[in-house]
Design a protein that fits this description.
- By secondary structure, this protein is of the alpha+beta class.
- It contains 13 helices and 11 strands.
- It folds into 3 domains: 49 residues, no CATH class; 98 residues, Jelly Rolls, CATH 2.60.120.10; 106 residues, Arc Repressor Mutant, subunit A (Orthogonal Bundle).
- Helix 1 packs across helix 2 and helix 11 crosses helix 12.
- The longest helix has 27 residues.
């Protein structure tokens, strides 16, 4: 805050004078205002809680839930009436980094979609052991298996960064199953693709070395069926990659250097750029 800055550089200056100086610097004192008015009304100063340019406020410019739902591949063939029914049965939650989207053992009541952010799907045991089953970037939907089998969830979903998550109610999910052939076709494709993903994960865990596991963990986030629209410039930290691959951040750093030297990716500030996706998928096996 300007007044706090002035107090730091002008020790001994009275609080009213500091407020007056701050108001003068910011040109927010009313015309003709005097020092006495600043003493009486110091709260007229610049409000640091208000954005300087509301038009650039990320919350104000973020796409609405309905806009994001319309871009989902499963929604592309729905009629307007069907989409209106879906929209009424979906709500959104903001999940802070480290927060739970859902917990192992809870009843499966929702089909879940990542509107924006990154989740990890994991299974945590009372012994303290943790197995990361999958990453879930923006555009991914999950939980259909538990809804179809009417069982309790067998995993935790945890936000690896601040995330927007859509929750489709069980009743809406079931209505789509009963009324939309296109939605059923989408689910068949998704379940088949998910099966292939988990077979690949099992292979990585049992047969591949650490560097190859990092390569496969990154490549798994670029499945065009499960996660449509993932850009090749991936905003992901080394710590997040470590969670997905089940290794330390320090070991991730070494693996990324090896993969970069091999020409498969480029390490950048705050993420990685995928140069050779097929190379990543084949690396080490």
């Amino acid at each position: 805050m300007p007044a706090a800055c002035l107090a730091a550089v002008l020790p001994g200056t009275s609080i009213p004078n500091i407020f007056w100086l701050a108001g003068s610097i910011l040109n927010v004192n009313p015309p003709g205002a005097s020092l006495s008015s600043a003493i009486l009304r110091p709260w007229n100063l610049y409000n640091c809680r208000v954005a300087d340019n509301p038009d650039l406020d990320p919350e104000a410019t973020a796409p609405s839930l309905a806009q994001r739902l319309r871009t989902c591949s499963w929604a592309s063939d729905l009629s307007e009436d069907e989409f209106a029914r879906v929209e009424a049965g979906v709500f959104e939650r903001f999940i802070p980094a480290g927060g739970f989207v859902c917990r192992k053992g809870e009843p499966a009541e929702y089909w879940l979609g990542v509107i924006d952010g990154l989740l990890k799907i994991s299974s945590d045991w009372v012994t303290g052991k943790t197995a990361t089953l999958s990453g879930m970037p923006s555009g991914g939907w999950f939980g259909e298996g538990s809804l179809l089998k009417v069982e309790r969830l067998r995993y935790d979903a945890i936000a690896m960064r601040d995330s927007r998550v859509a929750y489709m109610r069980r009743e809406t999910f079931q209505w789509l199953l009963d009324h939309s052939i296109a939605f059923n076709r989408f689910l068949l494709t998704q379940l088949n693709e998910r099966l292939g993903q988990f077979i690949g994960t099992l292979e990585s865990e049992r047969l591949l070395d650490t560097d190859a596991r990092v390569a496969r963990a990154l490549a798994s986030l670029f499945n065009t069926v499960l996660f449509p629209g993932t850009a090749h410039n991936l905003a992901i930290s080394q710590e997040e990659i470590g969670y997905l691959a089940g290794i330390s951040r320090q070991r991730v750093n070494r693996s990324l250097k090896i993969l970069e030297d091999a020409g498969f990716l480029e390490v950048a500030y705050g993420g990685v750029k995928i140069v050779d996706l097929e190379g990543l998928r084949r690396f080490g096996g």
